[in-house]
Amino acid sequence: MHGMATEHSRPAVAPTRSRDYAVVNGSYMSALAALGVILHRRQRSDADPVTSQELMLLALATFAISDVFAHERIATWIRAPFTMESGDHRPERPRGRGLRYVIGELMECSRCMGSWSALGLIGLRTASPAAAGAVTAVFAVAGANDFLQAAFRLLSEVDNEHGES
Q: Residue 94: what are its φ and ψ, rounded to 5°?
């Protein structure tokens, strides 16, 4: 029984503390506030509001970016300091403790990465509308491709099921 946990053992040390989450949330909120201040100070007459069409492209781009960071092999090198990866390079769980662990949790969550991706795209749109337009278009097309590929797979599966009956 040496080295084994028992009912009376000290509880395992939590990998995070509330302040670790506060740092990440504070960073996001600070970046969001800074973006708001920059936009307020500019008050340019040529600053266009986000149109419905652009909003759809930004949503698709945000989906594609967050999916790449949270799930795809190509982003393994970015996630590696923060997540343990499976044999097929998919994130399995966060690494370490504290802020490193919290960032690992963030990087495994496509919804969480979506919030950061959206902030980055809007920040880029504020700093350089032309660059943001190009980046948004590339990732929006990639996001649309993801949906089309998923729809094709689904239709193929349905067709194969009906063909076997």
A: -65, 155
Range of the domain at 144: 18-26+50-156
Burial 15-37 (b: 16+ CB within 10 A, else e): bbeeebeeebeeeeeeeeeebee
What is the per-residue pLDDT across 4-51, written as a single tens digit (0 to 9) for each?
444 444 446 678 889 999 999 999 999 999 998 888 887 755 567 788
**Helix (H) or strand (E) run with residue 91 in it:** strand 91-94
Give the global pTM.
Answer: 0.78
Number of separate domains in the chain:
1
Separation of first and last alpha carbons in the chain:
57
